[in-house]
Design goal:
2 domains; 9 helices; mainly alpha; 3-stranded mixed beta sheet; Alpha-lytic protease prodomain-like; elongated
Length: about 300
C-alpha cells in the first residue's frame, strides 16, 4: 500500500518539475521569437503545474489512515483531485476555442522560425511524461494520476495548434490556426468531460463493473461452508472499494462457526482483490425461508 502511494507521489512531482522547466523554456522562446501563440502555450503549460500539484495533494491526502470523522479512510481525495483536473481540461478547451476565435478575427503576424523550437520541446518533454504518468496511473489505479496524464497529453494537442499557427504565419495561411485550434479544443473538451464523468461516478459510488461483482462472489464461494452469496454491494473509495455482502451458511452450525466463516470470507476477499480495502460480511442461515428465496442454491454447499 505504501509503495502504491509513493509511486503516485513521485509521478505527480515529476509532472510538477517537468512542467516548470518546460514553462520557462517556452516563455523564453515565445519572447525571443515574438510568437504570441508560444507565449500563450507557456501559460497553458504553467497551468499543468497546478494540476500536478493538485494531484500530488490528492494522493497525499488519500493515504491518510481512517479516523473518527472518516471511518472509511480518505481515498476519495484522489477522485476529487481527478475531478478538479477534468474541470481544468474543460476550461482549457473553452479557452482554446476563444483563442481560436480571436485568432480568426485577428490574423497572426509573421514570427521567427525559432518559435518552432517550443513545439519540438513540448513533444520531447510531454509525450514521455504522459506515457509514464498514465502507465503509473493504470498500475496503481489512480483516478487523479490518470487525469494528470491526460492533461500532459492535452498539452501535446494544443502544441499542434501552435505549430500550425507558426507554419501558417510563415507561409501566409493564417486561417489554418483557428480551424485546427477549434478541432484540438473539442478533443480536449471531450477528454475532460470523460475524465470528469469517471471521477463523478466514483464519488457517487457507482459499481465498477458486473465482472468485479462476480469476482467478489467467486472469492466468497471459495470458502468452505459458504452455500450461497447474494446482495453484494460495492462502494468506490477513490482508487479502492469497500464491499458488503450476504452469505448463507448451514443453519445447523454454531454461531461461533458461522462467525469464523464470515471472517474467512472477509480475509479472502481483501487478500485476493487488491482494490478492496474492507469487506463487511453478513451471515444468514440456509433455512427454509432462504431456500425458497434462492431456489437456485445447490444443496449441500461447499
Amino acid at each position: 500500500m505504501k509503495d502504491r502511494f509513493k509511486k503516485g507521489e513521485e509521478a505527480s512531482l515529476i509532472g510538477v518539475a517537468g512542467n516548470l522547466v518546460l514553462t520557462a523554456l517556452k516563455l523564453f522562446i515565445g519572447i525571443v521569437s515574438g510568437s504570441t501563440a508560444v507565449t500563450a502555450d507557456a501559460i497553458h503549460t504553467f497551468s499543468d503545474v497546478l494540476v500536478s500539484i493538485i494531484t500530488f495533494i490528492g494522493i497525499r491526502i488519500s493515504k491518510k489512515p481512517a479516523d473518527k470523522e472518516h471511518p472509511y479512510g480518505h481515498y476519495d481525495a484522489e477522485a476529487i483531485a481527478g475531478l478538479f483536473s477534468s474541470i481544468a481540461l474543460v476550461l482549457l478547451g473553452f479557452e482554446l476555442i476563444k483563442y481560436a476565435y480571436i485568432a480568426f478575427l485577428n490574423p497572426a503576424h509573421v514570427v521567427r522560425y525559432t518559435a518552432i523550437y517550443a513545439v519540438i520541446l513540448t513533444f520531447i518533454f510531454k509525450e514521455p511524461m504522459a506515457r509514464y504518468t498514465l502507465r503509473v496511473a493504470r498500475e496503481i489505479k489512480s483516478p487523479a494520476l490518470e487525469a494528470d496524464g491526460q492533461n500532459h497529453r492535452s498539452d501535446i494537442y494544443s502544441s499542434f495548434a501552435v505549430l500550425i499557427a507558426i507554419i501558417g504565419s510563415l507561409l501566409g495561411f493564417t486561417f489554418l490556426d483557428p480551424i485546427v485550434g477549434i478541432a484540438i479544443a473539442i478533443i480536449i473538451l471531450w477528454i475532460g468531460i470523460k475524465i470528469g464523468m469517471r471521477n463523478t461516478n466514483i464519488l457517487m459510488g457507482r459499481v465498477p463493473s458486473e465482472k468485479f461483482v462476480k469476482l467478489i462472489e467467486s472469492r466468497a464461494k471459495s470458502i468452505k461452508g459458504v452455500a450461497y452469496v447474494h446482495n453484494v454491494k460495492v462502494h468506490s473509495l477513490g482508487a479502492f472499494t469497500n464491499v458488503e455482502l450476504h452469505v448463507c451458511v448451514s443453519e445447523d452450525i454454531s454461531l461461533a462457526d458461522a462467525h469464523g466463516i464470515a471472517h474467512m470470507v472477509q480475509k479472502e476477499i481483501v487478500a485476493s482483490i487488491p482494490e478492496v480495502v474492507s469487506a463487511l460480511v453478513h451471515v444468514e442461515p440456509l433455512d427454509r425461508h432462504h431456500r425458497e428465496m434462492h431456489k437456485e442454491i445447490h444443496h449441500g454447499g461447499k
